[in-house]
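Lay summary

Proteins are chains of building blocks that fold into shapes. Our project writes down both the chain and a compact code for its shape. Here are two examples, one after the other.
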Amino acid sequence: MKSTTAPKTVRTLIAPDKFKGSLTASEVAEALATGLRSATDMKDPAGAVQCELLPLADGGDGSVDAAVAAGFTRHSHQVAGPTGKPVLASIAFDGETAVVEVANTCGLALLPGGRREALDASSRGFGDAVLFALGLRPARIVLALGGSASTDGGMGMLTALGFTFQDADGRQLHGSGRTLSQIHSVHHNPLPELAGIELIVACDVHNPLLGPNGAPAVFGPQKGAQTADVVVLDDGLQHFAAKLADAGFEHAPSLAGHEGAGSAGGIGYACLLLGADQVSGADYFLDLLDFNTRKDSRDIVITGEGSIDEQTLAGKLPAAVARRSGKRPIIAVAGRSLLPEERWPDMALTRVYTLAEYTDQDSSKDPDLSAALLRRIGKDIGTSLL
């Protein structure tokens, strides 16, 4: 990529997603920037790489961190974790928009000892965080779905937001996949704080709630569900929708077939029940973080994620970044790439760098190694630009 017409100062926008299981988007951006800034043109020491960092998220885990990195204020609040054990969660707020995230409230990463609880994990903590966000009086709340530990259809979340679920003996039920089938009656006391609040589901999962492409069948095994558990969860969610219809939510059964209802173990379904609008997570967060304005003053865009493959081409965050970057060169960095070089033009990529090319070790669970390799890659990118 060397060119005699290249500017002495190359302005880069570093806009990656997280490397899941290894580094946050902020950590990826920082490591690349450190490497880029260390590169100098030996023939012309005045040459330099200028870095603007824009850690990104697509509505999954890391969404709150991305909003904070872009200027939102972090607010912390104790919520019920996926197994009921209290955890300290964060939301992001800029005075008008609040970002609330499933992953840091009731996500898989919060399970004690990492033990999957397919039937007993709850989305209650996400509802606690939404309730806390409502206390800040936002105009809108962005519901970032992804990384959930539960498959409770959002039953736990709804218990924090004015819903009561009782069994045949009148006992209040704790929201979980296991208790879905025990629901006998549903009572709803609308929260006045929700009136007039714009709710936005930011998610790129299109699965319905039920059936072979539903939340239990597709995502349940990732949460520890065995074959018999998937049947229990699917039957429970169908019962859940029927009981909501009995309680006056006539559209509850039809919403189960809505695209995205199965996201985050069915939390997407509960959000739709509350009247939330569903949008593309990748594009919404690019707008929220003002990507278009930021890239306009940059010469090069550097993006990336843990793995670049066919799913990336289907519309994941790096593809959205590439689509919006115009004709400026786009470089991708990943832990690994399953995309052959002849497919790079499909994303308008100039070059793809991978950690796998720099080491024989597995860096996917080694943050220190990943960061060190990204610094090396950053320096190599910087050297190629000057």
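And here is the second example, written the same way.
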Amino acid sequence: MTPAADPAQRDLPALPHPIRWAAATAAFQIEGARTEDGRGRSVWDTWVETPGKVVDGATAEPGPDSYHRWADDVALTAGLGLDRYRFSISWTRVQPDGTGAANTAGLDYYSRLVDGLLEAGVTPFPTLFHWDLPVPLHEAGGWLSRDTAARFADYTALVADRLGDRVEHWYTINEPAMTTLQGYAVGALAPGEFLLFDALPTAHHQLLAHGLATRVLREAGAQAVGVANNHTLVRALHPDDPADRAAVTAYDILHNRVFADPVLTGAYPDLSQFGHAMPVRDGDLDVIAERPDFYAVNFYNPTTVTAPTGADNPIPFDIVPTPGAPVTGFGPEWPIVPETLTALLLDFTERYPGLPPLIVSENGASFPEPDRAGRVDDADRISYLDGHIRAVGAAMAAGAPVEEYTVWSLIDNFEWADGYTQRFGLVHVDFDTAERTPKASYDWYRRVIAENRR
């Protein structure tokens, strides 16, 4: 990269009006301490212990060891000048088997973290479920079972009872789309089921869990509650080909509309082409569509699709590389096209009249970096974030009601099935020592936040 192209040397992105600034992490990816203080087992514990499931054979223990080094993370959030820190609460640390009484030691940890953030002037913004489903609930049917939604409401009540006096802002479920599509449909992530379209009931039960938890949290005094979903702008490889346009429609339904429409309109899109209807009971959609205080979008990349090959292919689309796009450390499956975030936010604004405020609840990129480092000059990450923050600004200028932007992630972490081979952090972590070293992107993001408050 030439100095003229170095994003660190450009003018900082300036948004058309003030928003809140945040960074995010997730419990399983950063906490470690997998067997301490009564924590139970989640489907991700099973996954990492299964040979071949994690590309580098790594486990999440100890990882960044945030269970013991939470104060270091709080200091990093304060150093950035964040308005909010998005972290997740481990269901198995609070309720080891997914049912029954709360584990006091687990709640004590989150209580310390909340108090530390408040003392640092950073608003705690927890996520109640970021993929760590308790093993006993999985064995009883997991998200295929309606009962799991009820158990999630019970767990939510335990957390709200302990933290609700200090925490007013909540995410319920993180990325139900990825749990359904990658966890249950194609088995790429825990729990590793391969059900194809038979996975669709897991979408309904997660959204029902969101709705039930929303009611619990509001009864406990919450000021803002919403769901955080992974969304993508879907584009055709051959835009003039009717078959490719049909593939776009099919994938947009499965990845985006199945998860957004019920929350924002109170109805599911037509699923007849997939041979399924959702297991909706009377009153379910009223619970799911109880107006959220915000709608949160995790965005990383667009998705390019084309008509499927093979007459007997049960999937009505093929996902293909995006022509001409640079890529992150994940390669062609994660193309970098910032303007597609603008298009997605505007599509939501137009598609859903009366849309609640939007939060970009995750946005970031992984690039190859050393395991041990002093200073990491991560110009590629700065360029990615710079482009996407400007894309948010363009959407805001055109009328999208964006109120918050969140970088994924605050620190390098255990990246699910990719183990420690992908680094997303603004802060480098040595996974042998848990030493934290801010990267160039950390300083850059701090300056962006400061400049946009002037």
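What can we say about the second shape? The mean pLDDT is 96.
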